[in-house]
Every structure is written in structure tokens, then in C-alpha cells.
């Protein structure tokens, strides 16, 4: 079996995301059916209360007829909308939100690479597939380096791990943002009937506006995260990294602390992961909302903890191989850490 081909053709996050989208779609459909009649009853009750309050306030001159007419227009439009959409309102808002998120963010990948059309996926699942496909060359290069490792060339294993970690976290962090985007679209769809109903009355219009701003911020967050990933991939594409050419001296020259291309690839990977988190702050600043990275952070931390557990078990196996191999690994790792600590100092990173 060709492992390199598997890396390029297998989407590890697509199946879970497709299942999650199916579950959220089924949930919104069932919720639409359940909430339809109670929402109409609540709206009719509030509309009746508005009629009574307006009838009392108008003779007392606590309001004017133009205000009453304006509120009547809003209530009429909302009533027609809630009645005509029946139980499809939640599903309509949910599917529209997903389509806008997926369409706007997918356009960014056309700048970074040409893998968008080859994934065979659509919507937000296609974004996760593109995210994996975009970094596959880095994973293939790390795999090639690891295959060149041996008991007394354990530095190749170290270089492979160091190369994989930031891009593994990058893919996990981006996939987590896609999952969170689906959840946000689901919640906006769930609250859509309440927001439409609230918009009919003066006291609830600010609430409805806040809901629209939250949806806009959710779209901007995913767009910013996609832009951060695309920027990273755009930088990696400009570097001479071709896994099939990494043999012999070329491999040794590439997997070296003295190779600036190797360091740039590492820098882009960590920068991309950090900038994905920054995307939420930018979206909040633009839309004046308060979205957080808590959910995405928990998922990323869980994936990282699982990977660290695997590395710990591998380290226990390596301990059985003897002290010399571990001494080499420690020396190489210490050298790499020192390289990054001093890279901005005069003469550092040399």
C-alpha cells in the first residue's frame, strides 16, 4: 500500500464532520416541528397584549398614532413571515448560514492552492478537507524524514516530529473552528423564531439585531481562520519542499537546523495556529460581539493530549533501545530549542 498516496487522498476529519452536520440538520428539523405551534401561540399572545397596551396608551397620549402604525406594520410582517415559513424557518436559517460560511471561506482557498475542486466535498466539510489536503506535503516530507531515521540517526525522528507537530495542531485547530461554526449556525437557527418574533416589538429589536451581529461574527471568524490557514499554505507552497526529492544528501540538507527553509516551514506552522485564534478577536472587534475560542481550544487541547500520550508511549519504547539513542535525541532537541530562543538576537540562529 502506498502510504504517501493515502496521506494525499484520505480525509481524516471528513467523516466525523459529515456525521455532525447530519445530526445538526436532523436536530434543527425536529426542533422546527416542535417549536412551530408554541411560537405562533406566544406571538399571538404578545400581539394581543400589544393591542391592549396600545389601546390604553393612545388615549392617555403616552404614545402617538404613528408609533402604533409603525409597530403594527412590524407585527404584521412578522406574523406573515412566521405563518408562511411554517416549521421550515429554523432549517432555512441554519442551511443559509452554513451556505454563506462555506461559500465565503472556500473562496480563500482558491488563492492559496488549487486543491479545492479535488476533495469531492461540499460546504463546511469541504473546508476541513481542503485544510488537510493543503498540508499534506509537509506530512509527506516528515514521513520521508522519519523513514530515514535509525537507531543512531534518531535526529531524523526528532526533525520529523518537530515538523509534524505545528501542522497537526494547525489542522486540528482549523477543524475545531469548522465544528464550532456549525454549532453557531445551529444555535442561530434555533433562536431564529424568537429573534423574528422579538423584532416585531420595540423592546426586542435590539435583541434581533444582536442575533444578526452574532451570525455575522460567526461568518467572519471562520473566514479569518480560513485566511490564516491559506496564508500559511501560500507561504509553504513558495518553498522548495518536494517529498519525493528528499533522498540522500538532499534529505540531510533539508532536515537541518542550518536550513532556513526548514525553519520557515516551522515558523509558518506555528504562526498559522496562533493566527487562527486571533481570527476570533478580529471578528469580535468588527461585529462588536463576544465570541470566544473556548470550545475550539478544548477540542484542540484534547487532540494534543491524545497525541502527547502516544508520544509518551513511544518514548517508553525508545528507552528500551538504550541510552546512546536518547542522548542524541536530547542533544538535537536542545539545539533546536536554543536555535529558536536566539534566532532574533545578533548572530543568533546561525
TrEMBL record:
Keyword annotations: Membrane, Transmembrane, Transmembrane helix
Chaperone listed as a keyword: no
Recorded coiled-coil stretches: none
Keyword S-adenosyl-L-methionine carried by entry: no
Transmembrane segments: 39-56, 68-86, 157-176, 182-203, 215-236, 262-283
Name under which the protein is recorded: Membrane protein
Origin organism lineage: Bacteria, Pseudomonadati, Pseudomonadota, Alphaproteobacteria, Rhodospirillales
Amino acid at each position: 500500500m502506498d502510504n504517501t498516496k493515502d496521506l494525499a487522498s484520505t480525509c481524516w476529519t471528513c467523516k466525523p464532520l459529515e456525521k455532525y452536520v447530519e445530526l445538526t440538520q436532523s436536530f434543527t428539523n425536529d426542533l422546527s416541528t416542535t417549536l412551530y405551534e408554541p411560537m405562533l401561540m406566544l406571538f399571538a399572545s404578545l400581539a394581543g397584549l400589544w393591542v391592549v397596551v396600545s389601546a390604553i396608551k393612545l388615549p392617555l397620549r403616552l404614545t402617538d398614532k404613528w408609533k402604533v402604525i409603525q409597530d403594527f406594520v412590524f407585527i404584521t410582517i412578522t406574523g406573515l413571515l412566521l405563518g408562511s415559513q411554517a416549521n421550515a424557518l429554523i432549517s432555512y436559517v441554519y442551511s443559509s448560514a452554513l451556505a454563506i460560511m462555506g461559500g465565503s471561506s472556500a473562496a480563500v482557498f482558491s488563492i492559496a492552492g488549487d486543491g479545492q475542486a479535488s476533495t469531492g466535498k461540499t460546504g463546511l466539510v469541504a473546508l476541513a478537507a481542503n485544510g488537510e489536503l493543503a498540508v499534506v506535503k509537509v506530512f509527506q516530507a516528515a514521513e520521508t524524514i522519519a523513514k530515514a531515521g535509525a537507531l543512531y540517526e534518531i535526529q531524523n525522528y526528532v526533525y520529523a516530529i518537530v515538523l509534524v507537530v505545528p501542522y497537526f495542531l494547525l489542522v486540528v485547530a482549523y477543524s475545531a473552528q469548522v465544528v464550532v461554526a456549525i454549532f453557531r449556525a445551529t444555535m442561530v437557527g434555533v433562536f431564529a423564531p424568537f429573534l423574528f418574533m422579538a423584532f416585531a416589538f420595540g423592546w426586542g429589536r435590539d435583541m434581533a439585531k444582536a442575533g444578526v451581529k452574532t451570525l455575522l461574527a460567526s461568518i467572519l471568524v471562520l473566514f479569518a481562520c480560513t485566511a490564516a490557514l491559506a496564508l500559511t499554505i501560500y507561504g509553504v507552497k513558495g518553498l522548495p519542499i518536494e517529498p519525493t526529492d528528499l533522498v540522500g544528501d538532499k534529505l540531510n540538507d533539508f532536515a537541518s537546523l542550518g536550513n532556513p527553509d526548514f525553519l520557515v516551514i516551522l515558523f509558518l506552522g506555528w504562526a498559522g495556529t496562533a493566527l487562527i485564534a486571533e481570527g476570533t478577536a478580529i471578528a469580535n472587534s468588527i461585529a462588536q460581539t463576544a465570541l470566544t475560542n473556548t470550545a475550539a481550544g478544548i477540542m484542540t487541547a484534547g487532540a494534543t493530549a491524545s497525541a502527547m500520550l502516544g508520544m509518551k508511549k513511544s518514548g517508553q519504547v525508545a528507552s528500551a533501545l538504550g541510552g546512546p539513542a536518547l542522548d542524541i535525541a536530547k542533544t538535537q532537541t536542545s539545539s533546536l530549542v536554543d536555535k529558536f530562543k536566539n534566532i532574533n538576537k545578533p548572530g543568533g540562529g546561525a
